[in-house]
């Protein structure tokens, strides 16, 4: 299937998810922000050293993303879905017509107790219940933990630090996926900083996930993934820019450290 036709399928998938998300949150949310992203850049394929030592591959990849954040009476919601469309299948089909998503509902102790946001450095503490899913690899992770919301000021719309477990419930090799893994843990920093006129923003996240073993006893290395976006707002609902991705030990592969810039277009609706 040509990339153009697969882009149409990807956009249709994202549109359907967006309609479902909007229907679920429009009436219940205190506030809501939904965006569609298009990103294009060259991404590395991990674990090729298992096929042939020293083998490397990078593929031009289009990522279509639906991202949603909202607040409700007792907490908040954040999720995104990526449709990943590589220009070609490559050696092992990595990122070729794949779907990946993450969902993080939170329950705010401040909101549940009816208290005002803290005036000091720490503004709020929330219980977070995360879910990560990768369709092609048949990966399913649960991420229960705690989120700390900070009163950073100085242009920060928000600054959060999340501490979670990283619990595996994947299908494993027997289920046709990648090897299942032991449980681990994650630390994540996520933020949005903007100029006073909201014409320019730097936003994104950086995560650390600790090492673990897979179902065959192999080592899955710790990784650091940082994905800051640099956006210029042509219109309040339309931005262009770049996303820089740094991924040490990509997906736990010690032979793959990624550093790449992707073109970025964002529509808010």
For the structure shown, list the relevant keywords:
single chain, 269 residues, mainly beta, Outer membrane phospholipase (ompla), Chain C, 13-stranded antiparallel beta sheet, two-stranded antiparallel ribbon
Classification by helices and strands: mainly beta
Helix content: 10-25%
- The number of helical runs is 2
Please give the largest β-sheet: 13 strands, antiparallel
- CATH architecture assignment: Beta Barrel
| Beta strand % | over 45%
Q: What's the average pLDDT?
A: 91
Q: Using the alpha-carbon principal axes, give the shape.
A: globular
Outline the low-pLDDT stretches: 9-17
Commentary on this structure:
The chain is mainly beta. The protein has a single domain (3-268), classed as Nucleoside-specific channel-forming protein, Tsx-like (Outer membrane phospholipase (ompla), Chain C). It contains 2 helices and 15 strands. It has helices at residues 3-25, 109-113, and strands at residues 31-44, 58-72, 75-86, 96-108, 122-134, 139-150, 156-168, 184-194, 200-209, 212-213, 219-220, 223-226, 229-235, 238-248, 258-268. The radius of gyration is 19 Å and the shape is globular. The chain starts with a helix and ends with a strand.
Summarize the structure.
The protein is 10% helix and 56% strand. The protein is built from 2 helices and 15 strands.
Write the layout of secondary structure elements.
Blueprint: H1 3-25, E1 31-44, E2 58-72, E3 75-86, E4 96-108, H2 109-113, E5 122-134, E6 139-150, E7 156-168, E8 184-194, E9 200-209, E10 212-213, E11 219-220, E12 223-226, E13 229-235, E14 238-248, E15 258-268
Antiparallel strand pairs: 1-2, 1-15, 2-3, 3-4, 4-5, 5-6, 6-7, 7-8, 8-9, 9-12, 9-13, 10-11, 12-14, 13-14, 14-15
């Amino acid at each position: 299937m040509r990339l153009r036709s697969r882009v149409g399928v990807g956009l249709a998938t994202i549109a359907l998810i967006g309609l479902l998300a909007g229907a679920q949150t429009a009436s219940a949310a205190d506030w809501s922000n939904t965006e569609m992203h298009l990103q294009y850049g060259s991404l590395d394929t991990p674990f090729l050293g298992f096929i042939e030592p020293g083998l490397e591959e990078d593929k031009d990849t289009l990522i279509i993303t639906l991202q949603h954040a909202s607040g409700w009476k007792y907490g908040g919601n954040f999720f995104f879905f990526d449709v990943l469309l590589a220009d070609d299948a490559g050696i092992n089909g990595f990122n070729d017509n794949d779907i990946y998503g993450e969902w993080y509902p939170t329950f705010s102790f401040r909101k549940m107790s009816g208290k005002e946001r803290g005036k000091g450095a720490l503004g709020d503490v929330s219980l977070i219940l995360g879910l990560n899913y990768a369709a092609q690899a048949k990966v399913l992770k649960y991420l229960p933990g705690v989120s700390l919301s900070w009163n950073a000021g100085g242009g920060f719309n928000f600054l959060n630090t999340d501490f979670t477990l990283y619990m595996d419930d994947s299908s494993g090799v027997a289920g046709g996926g990648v090897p299942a893994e032991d449980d681990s843990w994650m630390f994540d920093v996520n933020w949005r900083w903007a100029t006073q006129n909201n014409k320019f923003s730097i936003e994104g996240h950086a995560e650390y996930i600790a090492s673990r073993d897979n179902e065959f006893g192999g080592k899955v290395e710790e990784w650091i993934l940082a994905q800051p976006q640099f956006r210029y707002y042509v219109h309040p609902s339309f931005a262009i820019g770049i996303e820089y991705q740094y991924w040490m030990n990509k997906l736990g592969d010690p032979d793959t450290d990624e550093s790449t810039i992707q073109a970025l277009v964002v529509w808010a609706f």
